[in-house]
Amino acid sequence: MTILIEQPALESQAEEWKRRVDSKELVFNGGFVVPSPTSNSGFEAPEINSFGNSFRDYNAETERQKSVEEFYKQQHINQTYDFVQKMRKDYEKLDKAVMSIWECCELLNSVVDDSDPDLDEPQIQHLLQSAEAIRKDHPDEDWLHLTALIHDLGKVLLLPEFGSLPQWAVVGDTFPVGCAFDEGNIHHKYFRDNPDNDNPAYNAKNGIYKERCGLDNVAMSWGHDDYMYMVAKENGTTLPPAALFIIRYHSFYPLHKAGKYTHLMNEEDEENLKWLHIFNKYDLYSKSKVLVDVEKVKPYYQSLIDKVRSTGIYVLIYVMLKL
Fold first, then answer.
1. 126 is in an annotated binding site
2. What is the pTM of this model?
């Protein structure tokens, strides 16, 4: 999978902030800017998921909960620093074939995320549900619509074309490897059987890292997030930094929900985290049994893809398949 980017020169951050303030867009947290929703019928986050439980309730006693817990047991035992390095080396070659964004989205029709306690629908529905929810509140931020559409494309790693990786190597909450496994991780108890847990080089708070080294310098557990991020970086993408941060860390719930691992962040991470907090509302709470009519919304997303392909605005993306 590869991403090729063309993008015009961006305004300086100061100019962008001034422009948004002048246009009465919302400013908070010392100058961080978020566009105000422009729709009166915006996205309403539900209180319960499609199974009648609270979102991300990993203790609800359901058949789904049992399989989710077994998933995390396997993930926590097998995601070691050495495993992550091996997977990154194997997949960074990018010696793949080419297909369109929409074709890649359609591949996800056959993928269901075993780690998700809130949804058991094919992943193309999750992509469109999150993108459509953002579109309701922020119709002019098409870069964010596009980020939502592609943020989970790395889940194609589950498919034969990409090596049929096990679910624990593709989905689920992510976390740093090479340092101590924080108790803020879901089902933390299963890390006791991870070989790195007994390795003095890896089981200290900072492990192999320096405090405030920046998340770009931290190895994350291998999966669809890090794969899609790696693809973008290896191809010199100029997607907005916030979009890349969202792609790599949207499953890093120990950070953006539990507030853990902040000692590894630098100032740039702290700014980008604010965009991830915005994105997470739509990524998490849009999951529903009310399915998006794929054929109805396809023209909009296809026009967005065609627009960026023909004008060079924001991004030009190709998705590469492993042969």
1. yes
2. 0.77
